[in-house]
Amino acid sequence: MSNKEAWVGTWRPHKPRGPIAALYGSPGPKYALPGLTGNTKHDPTKGKAPMYSFGIRHHQPNHDSSPGPKYLIPSNITRSGRDGTPAFSLHSRQKDPEVFKAPGPGKYSPENSEKWIFRSSPAYSLAGRSKEESTNQTPGPAAYSLPPVFGSKTVGKTAAPCFSICGRSKTGNFDEDLKNTPGPAAYKAVDPYIYMKKPPHFSMTGRNYTPCDSTMKPGPGAHYPERVTNTRAKAPSFSFGLRHSEYIAPLIEDVLE
């Protein structure tokens, strides 16, 4: 069988005229087509069906939910509302309302009504000068001064040489110390006892007392030898007044009429 009989049709293999995609390597099945389910990476050329989600649980309770047995119901609350028992509270005393105070005859000034009813002459008052509304900023006569006639600052005239007594300058003076050497007072006098024999020194010290017993001892006047009864007999002692018995009858004197 010849090669011409092996080919069927008019097409025969030939060299391509230009580059085709089959000549280059493709990444293969690396990229997938967009899906038709779900919301993410959906095929934009296809329509979407309605999607529903389960939702999430809200942290805040609904308005229709009751607080439950969390709160304590007051005892004066019934199923029909509050009971009619009067309740009182301790408040401060309210201030009495002020009564309307009508003005008296002394509040009116009828003498000031003439300028509103009749013609009156112009009246002027002596008021203070306002600083804010003052717009005249021109200087007064005391702000000017005539040029001096004497001295070195004369105007339009020849001035004679003037000399003044100035203070002594430390720079360029005859006693200027260019080397900044210290004077005799800058040195401290040396104690002569450092290089000479030092005599004995005495100081004023406090008075020293002889150590002795400082306890208080009784003197001769603190003793009473006449009161001693241990070594001799005691003399009888008497006191003013008598001791009476509670059972002795009182003395009854006959009164002669």
Task: Walk me through the structure.
It is a single chain. With 257 residues, the protein is mostly loops. It is built from two helices and two strands; from the N terminus they run αββα. The chain has helices spanning 3-6, 114-117; strands at residues 77-78, 81-82. It has a two-stranded antiparallel sheet. The mean pLDDT is 76.
Outline the secondary-structure elements:
Layout: H1 3-6, E1 77-78, E2 81-82, H2 114-117
Give me some keywords for this one.
single chain; 257 residues; little secondary structure; two-stranded antiparallel ribbon; 2 helices; 2 strands; 3% helix; extended
Write out the strand line-up for the largest beta sheet, numbering strands in chain order: 1-2
Could you tell me the number of beta strands? 2
Order of helices and strands: HEEH
Helical segment count: 2
Q: What fraction of the residues are assigned to beta strands by DSSP? A: under 5%
Give the terminus-to-terminus CA distance. 207 Å
* Basic shape: extended
Helix content: under 10%
Biggest pleated-sheet summary: 2 strands, antiparallel
Radius of gyration: 67 Å
Average pLDDT reading: 76
Poorly predicted runs: none
Give the structural class: little secondary structure
In short:
The chain is largely without helices or strands and 257 residues long. The chain is built from 2 helices and 2 strands, in the order αββα. A two-stranded antiparallel sheet has the order 1-2.
